From TrEMBL:
<dbReference type="GO" id="GO:0005886">
    <property type="term" value="C:plasma membrane"/>
</dbReference>
<dbReference type="GO" id="GO:0006865">
    <property type="term" value="P:amino acid transport"/>
</dbReference>
<feature type="transmembrane region" description="Helical">
    <location>
        <begin position="250"/>
        <end position="270"/>
    </location>
</feature>
<feature type="transmembrane region" description="Helical">
    <location>
        <begin position="346"/>
        <end position="365"/>
    </location>
</feature>
<keyword id="KW-1133">Transmembrane helix</keyword>
<feature type="transmembrane region" description="Helical">
    <location>
        <begin position="371"/>
        <end position="389"/>
    </location>
</feature>
<keyword id="KW-0029">Amino-acid transport</keyword>
<dbReference type="InterPro" id="IPR004840">
    <property type="entry name" value="Amino_acid_permease_CS"/>
</dbReference>
<feature type="transmembrane region" description="Helical">
    <location>
        <begin position="58"/>
        <end position="77"/>
    </location>
</feature>
<feature type="transmembrane region" description="Helical">
    <location>
        <begin position="138"/>
        <end position="156"/>
    </location>
</feature>
<dbReference type="GO" id="GO:0055085">
    <property type="term" value="P:transmembrane transport"/>
</dbReference>
<feature type="transmembrane region" description="Helical">
    <location>
        <begin position="168"/>
        <end position="190"/>
    </location>
</feature>
<feature type="transmembrane region" description="Helical">
    <location>
        <begin position="301"/>
        <end position="325"/>
    </location>
</feature>
<keyword id="KW-0812">Transmembrane</keyword>
<keyword id="KW-0472">Membrane</keyword>
<protein>
    <submittedName>
        <fullName>L-asparagine transporter-like permease</fullName>
    </submittedName>
</protein>
<feature type="transmembrane region" description="Helical">
    <location>
        <begin position="410"/>
        <end position="430"/>
    </location>
</feature>
Length: 460
């Protein structure tokens, strides 16, 4: 009987392996491409102007630190996703680790951060478009891009991953083309002349505002990696679950390398003092050369890249809101979807919140992007902190199981990442504009906690 049981168990395991092999899914490089499409957006193409203004060339070191920390966050979420697949992803893990309030807080922070990210993307898109129409008000472009984003989401979610992969290739190709152009110029292969006002280039002072300058700019640097949670969730769709580490390394190595070298050549092409938050540093650098339409073409590609990230964020936060409603953590009417599978009511609620956020651009047209980016960055980092803390607490629950997927160095790398996140948020208090952004995010968290108490009283 014992032998029969062992044979039966072996046959079942063989069948499971065959099913695993035949199971459809995505490869590790496809996951890396989806990640690149989700992450590279206005946070990098425009947000780097804020970090350059604050930190100067020292942001290059900041991107290395942020890249390593982001990999730890990705790996922590991927490890939980593979060992304990959950539809609610990080919200469910936060609830398992810290109770109902953990999932409630994580879900709503992600949604609010997503709304702020969309707002910053739309402001950035409007700023990029003003390159051609400098006399047109920012708010008009904001309305146009909001309507376009709603229209794309109303079409449904078909082939969303493929579309994001295509945009990922466009974004990567754009940055690689910029790096190639910079290399050709720096090594004297392209004998081009710069305008006199931008002639003093190169890196003479890595820390123009000292170490505190880089510390203050770290919040914007981390914002450039904001979409990593989407990749951690998508890791469950891998054909071979053990490829998650390979996908994460491929994604982060590619991102950090492209980020690092593209910004390095920005400093080689243009004087860093001429860069401000009103324009993309890449367009500013290309404007220094009298090459017809080069800056305009690059600006067009940046707009398409930022728009794809905005649409992706719209799609993501709308579905998170539906999931919150299904878990009774949001009003029940929000979870309804139409025949196309579009959650129109959740889309409407998200649009209203987005409209309120964009309206601040009328009141604070000069500072709004910095405020929104800081507050969105803080909310994202706090959500990362919850993901890491959940992984540390939940790891013992599956660590003793057989065939458990484990990543080397955890949970110690999660603890290191939580420490880095705490330091980065602390740096935001050193700058007045960033401090206001932190206070905005703090007010939102207080609002979430108050709403949680009201929800609990309503259920009682």
């Amino acid at each position: 009987m014992k032998n029969h049981h062992l044979v039966k168990q072996a046959v079942q395991q063989k069948k499971q392996k065959q099913l695993q092999k035949g199971k459809s899914g995505i490869s590790w490089w496809q996951l890396s491409l989806i990640g690149i499409g989700s992450i590279i957006g206005a946070g990098f193409f425009l947000g780097t102007s804020l970090s350059i203004k604050t930190a100067g060339p020292a942001i290059l070191f900041g991107y290395l630190i942020a890249g390593v920390t982001t990999y730890f966050v990705f790996s922590a979420l991927a490890e939980m996703t593979i060992n304990d697949p959950q539809l609610g992803s990080f919200r469910t893990y936060a609830r398992k680790a810290y109770g109902h309030i953990g999932g409630f807080l994580s879900g709503w922070m992600y949604w609010l951060a997503g709304v702020l990210i969309m707002s910053s993307e739309i402001v950035a898109l409007s700023t990029f478009t003003q390159f051609w129409f400098p006399d047109v008000s920012l708010w008009l472009f904001s309305i146009i891009y909001t309507v376009l984003g709603i229209g794309v989401n109303l079409l449904g979610a078909k082939n969303f991953g493929q579309i994001e992969s295509i945009f990922a290739v466009i974004k990567l190709a754009t940055l690689l083309a910029f790096i190639g152009f910079g290399a050709l110029f720096v090594f004297g292969i392209l004998p081009l002349e710069q305008t006199k006002v931008l002639a003093e280039t190169g890196i003479s002072d890595w820390f123009p505002q000292g170490v505190t300058g880089m510390w203050k700019g770290m919040i914007f640097i981390f914002f450039s990696f904001g979409g990593i949670a989407v990749v951690g969730v998508t890791a469950s769709e891998l054909k071979n679950k053990s490829d998650v580490a390979k996908a994460g390394k491929g994604l982060l190595v590619t991102l950090v390398a492209v980020y690092f070298f593209s910004l390095f050549f920005v400093f080689q092409l243009v004087n860093g003092n001429t860069i401000d938050e009103e324009a993309s540093p890449f367009v500013t650098a290309l404007t220094a050369f009298e090459i017809p339409y080069l800056d305009a073409i690059f600006n067009s590609i940046i707009i398409s890249a930022a728009f794809s990230t905005m649409v992706g964020a719209f799609f993501s936060v709308t579905h998170v809101l539906v999931a919150l409603a299904k878990d009774r953590d949001a009003p029940a009417f929000i979870k309804k979807v139409n025949k196309r599978g579009v959650a129109t009511r959740a889309l409407l609620v998200t649009t209203l919140a987005l409209g309120i956020s964009i309206c601040f651009s009328f009141v604070l047209p000069d500072e709004v992007y910095e405020y929104v980016t800081t507050s969105a960055g803080v909310m994202l980092l706090l959500n990362w902190f919850i993901i890491l803390a959940s992984q540390v607490k939940l790891r013992p629950s599956y660590q003793s199981k057989t065939n458990t997927f484990k990543l080397v160095g955890f949970p110690y790398t999660s603890i290191i990442a939580m420490l880095v996140i705490t330091i980065v948020i602390g740096g935001a208090f050193l700058d007045r504009a960033e401090r206001i952004g932190v206070l905005i995010s703090a007010a939102m968290i207080v609002l979430i906690i108050v709403c949680y108490q009201l929800f609990m009283w309503g259920r009682a």
